[in-house]
């Protein structure tokens, strides 16, 4: 099968997300200028640099009460900071509960029954008990082609690692089993890993 995206695929559901998978989930927590907190998962998310460490996530679509974007990006535009919480498989139900299109001002921490802790370097909350959390300062928002598509780039200025995930100085992902996004409504959990030393 071959198709040109602008002509459509003719399938019951768009296969694009299934093709590009698995994708890590950035569980983005933000706080607006008025103190309202938001928590939402983004599967268009990744790390893009080591020095300084930088991450990106893309917000697609808009809410009618947020002037052409979503709560996360609106809060980041106001404050210039955000926190990326890493999702372990045991938090899958809470992550899903936080993904709804709720009215502005809804606190997804409360809605999903999650505890919160203050970040160390930025005025924002992070998910209590998350295996890792990356405190980020905004460096750039890039407007992408298409309606309400924005790429947010942040520099990581603080890193939280859950102690039980550190084994002999290595951050062991099998201790929390990262949740990843596949296509459609599907997810996967990382339960085992293998090493492949590079040829050089």
UniProtKB/TrEMBL annotation:
Gene3D superfamilies (alphabetical): Electron Transport, Fmn-binding Protein, Chain A (2.30.110.10)
Recorded superkingdom: Bacteria
GO molecular function, one term: oxidoreductase activity, acting on the CH-NH group of donors, NAD or NADP as acceptor
Flavin reductase like domain mapped to chain residues: 20-173
PANTHER family from the UniProt entry: BLR2425 PROTEIN, FLAVIN REDUCTASE LIKE DOMAIN-CONTAINING PROTEIN
Name by which UniProt lists this protein: Flavin reductase family protein
């Amino acid at each position: 099968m071959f198709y040109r995206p602008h002509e459509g695929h003719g399938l019951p559901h768009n296969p694009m997300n299934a093709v590009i998978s698995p994708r890590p989930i950035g569980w983005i927590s933000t706080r607006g200028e008025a103190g309202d907190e938001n928590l939402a998962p983004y599967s268009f998310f990744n790390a893009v640099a080591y020095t300084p460490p930088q991450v990106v996530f893309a917000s697609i679509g808009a809410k009618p009460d947020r002037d052409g974007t979503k709560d996360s990006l609106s809060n980041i535009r106001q404050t210039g900071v955000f926190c990326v919480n890493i999702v372990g498989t045991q938090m899958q139900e809470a992550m899903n509960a936080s993904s709804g299109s709720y009215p502005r001002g809804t606190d997804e921490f409360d809605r999903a029954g999650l505890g919160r802790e203050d970040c160390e370097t930025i005025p924002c909350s992070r998910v209590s008990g998350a295996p890792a959390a990356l405190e980020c300062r905004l460096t750039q928002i890039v407007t992408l082609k298409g309606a309400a598509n924005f790429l947010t780039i942040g520099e990581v200025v603080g890193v939280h690692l859950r102690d039980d995930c550190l084994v002999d100085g290595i951050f062991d992902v099998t201790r929390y089993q990262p949740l990843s996004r596949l296509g459609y409504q599907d997810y996967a959990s990382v339960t085992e890993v293998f090493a492949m030393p590079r040829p050089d």
